[in-house]
């Protein structure tokens, strides 16, 4: 009713002033007394219910400050898109994750700093969250096993934070997961075998951590994977990733790996100089090709190239890891 509309208008006004709205790139209509807040740029409302905002979409908008906790009191939010506002700092209000309607949270490439555990919904098994994108912040602590109970999650992006500990086995319970990105942290331990039992997992990025031990034998059954990033870790043992890449059943298109970490492999044997490359479906990055490639990330041997003819590396770890980065789903 009218009371609800008044309250929501107040909340969005607080949101505007808390995040430096006067200096936003796009602030059209905001806090204009003659306009309904559904006409303020970045707020998308439900066409069937007056005044019901379902999406806050304000990426790359020069927002500065801390997200006010009042935002969690707005009902029926489905999509919160606040990514790429690096001066948005402090703690993100955890109560927003308890919104039963929330389907997408994108706060990637901002300056949030708090334990990641704060952002697990109070009742994860009841959450409808499908995409959780928080890479490129300063989240700390371990990856909560509670994510495994959010069974609707299809995209979990935690890369480039300050996370420690191990990758929880419970992540293998996310039956709808398509993309898991945890690269660029300080994660230790082994790669859980449970991840390769996820039937819809297409992209896995664990690059640039402190992971060790052998690659799980279950990797050989993950035919649906098309992008696998394992580089800059301390894996040992049999290079199952190479075997997986070479297998005719494999759908792998991109693989990033440090070839000399494994037994009986070297740069030439993996990205090397034979005609086998023509039969392979995947590219590979080998750190040993660094000198040829002219960049710290090594070279990429493309399908159809002769082995050893590496193209230049990007010189940027995030760009290399993100060659096949998944697009957000509305």
TrEMBL record:
Localization in the cell: Cell envelope
Q: Tell whether Repeat is among the UniProt keywords.
A: yes
Specify whether rRNA-binding is a keyword of the entry: no
Classify the main location: other
Disordered, as annotated region: 292-330
* Matches recorded under Pfam families: LRR_1
Q: Return the Basic residues bias intervals.
A: 318-330
Q: Which UniProt keywords apply?
A: Leucine-rich repeat, Repeat
What is the protein's given name?
Answer: Leucine-rich repeat-containing N-terminal plant-type domain-containing protein
């Amino acid at each position: 009713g009218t009371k609800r509309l008044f309250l929501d208008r107040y909340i969005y006004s607080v949101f505007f002033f808390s995040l430096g709205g006067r200096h936003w790139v796009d602030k059209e209509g905001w806090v204009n007394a003659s306009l309904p807040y559904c006409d303020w740029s970045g707020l998308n409302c439900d066409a069937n219910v007056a005044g019901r905002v379902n999406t806050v979409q304000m990426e790359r908008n020069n927002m500065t400050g801390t997200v006010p906790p009042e935002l969690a009191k707005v009902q029926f939010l489905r999509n919160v898109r606040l990514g790429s506002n690096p001066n948005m700092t402090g703690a993100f209000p955890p109560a927003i994750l308890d919104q039963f309607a929330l389907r997408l949270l994108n706060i990637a490439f901002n300056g949030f700093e708090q334990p990641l555990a704060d952002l697990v919904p109070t009742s994860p098994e009841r959450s409808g969250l499908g995409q959780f994108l928080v890479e490129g912040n300063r989240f700390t602590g371990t990856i909560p096993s509670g994510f495994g109970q959010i069974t609707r999650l299809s995209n979990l992006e935690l890369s480039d934070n300050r996370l420690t500990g191990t990758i929880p086995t419970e992540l293998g319970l996310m039956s709808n997961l398509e993309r898991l990105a945890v690269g660029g942290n300080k994660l230790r331990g082994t790669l859980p075998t449970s991840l390769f039992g996820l039937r819809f997992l297409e992209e896995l990025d664990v690059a640039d951590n402190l992971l060790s031990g052998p690659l799980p034998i279950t990797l050989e059954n993950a035919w649906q994977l098309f992008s696998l990033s394992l580089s800059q870790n301390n894996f040992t043992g049999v290079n199952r990733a190479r075997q997986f890449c070479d297998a005719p059943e494999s759908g792998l298109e991109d693989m990033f790996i440090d070839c000399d970490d494994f037994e009986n492999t070297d740069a030439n044997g993996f990205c090397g100089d034979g005609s086998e490359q023509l039969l392979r479906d995947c590219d590979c990055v080998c750190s040993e090709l660094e000198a040829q490639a002219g960049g710290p990330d090594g070279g990429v041997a493309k399908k159809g190239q002769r082995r050893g003819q590496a193209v230049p590396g990007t010189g940027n770890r995030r760009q290399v890891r993100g060659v096949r980065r998944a697009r957000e789903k509305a």
